[in-house]
Amino acid sequence: MKSIPAVLLVDTGVDDAFAIALAARSPQIDLLGLVASFGNSKLENTLQNTLWLTQLLGVQVPVCKGSAHAFCEPDWVPEEGVVNCHGDRGLGPVVAPDTLAAAPAGEDAVAFLAGILERSEEPVALIPVGPLTDVARFVVARPDLLPKIRVISLMGGAGRGGNVTPFVEANISSDPEAAATVFGCGAPIVMCGLDCTRDCVVTAAMIEELRAESEGELAQVLCDSGAFYLSIDELLHDPLAVACLIDEGVLRTEEHYVDICLTPGEHRGQTVVDWEDRLGRPANVQVGVAADPQRFWQLVSAAVKGTL
Length: 308
Ligand SMILES: [Ca+2]
Description:
Blueprint: E1 4-10, H1 14-25, E2 29-36, H2 43-57, E3 63-65, H3 109-119, E4 124-128, H4 133-141, E5 149-155, H5 170-174, H6 176-183, E6 189-192, H7 194-197, H8 204-213, H9 217-230, H10 239-246, E7 251-256, E8 258-260, E9 271-273, E10 285-291, H11 293-305
The protein binds calcium ion.
């Protein structure tokens, strides 16, 4: 299979770190760039984490500084000291060095994405695994480049049951207006939401087995971060949005019309799926409904070990 040109948009984040390793090491993905935004931690942390991971992976992939806040909420600041499964700085107990050899690309995310899509002969897959802010900014600024988007394979959303509220998933909740813009942009969308990432269970025992089979600093960082994160939430969400491009058998999807709820309250940011197509509107999303956990972990664990 020919490799797929792709840009990964991250908010690194423990599960983002595994997604970066998978995208960078899979021979089926030609990783052309990374964009780091706010999300699992504030922008300065997610950017530093992303740069550090590319250094540990030994890949020369440009990293762009993305958005520090949501599309329509310029005053948003992350809550300090909130204990979550990503820890204070994004990688759980592991902290990226303050000084790194790599520096971010000197472009705004819109110009960065436009340059990559313009230079690519083939349409490029965008893989957002954090808030959809930078993808939304891009499709608004450069609708002329929509035909150069092969697919937007995103981690986010939930057709049935959320993780921020009973209805809403975290990435979409972080920037609902951006999500509404992206879901309505007309590019092909694959939604790896909680409906399918709930199948991507990774246990502490699986991480320890992986640690025993791996060598090198990257694997150590991923296993240390992963052990912390999985002790709180046993689901490794983000790599599924990458894995489904590498192996179509990883994900089962259904085509449906999906809308984003923007009404204030506990439904704000809900991905409302018309499961029975009652509205009769054209489907805009391939909704992931189930994942194959064995095939998923086979890819992710091989990426960590460097045996893909
Ligand atoms: Ca993420």
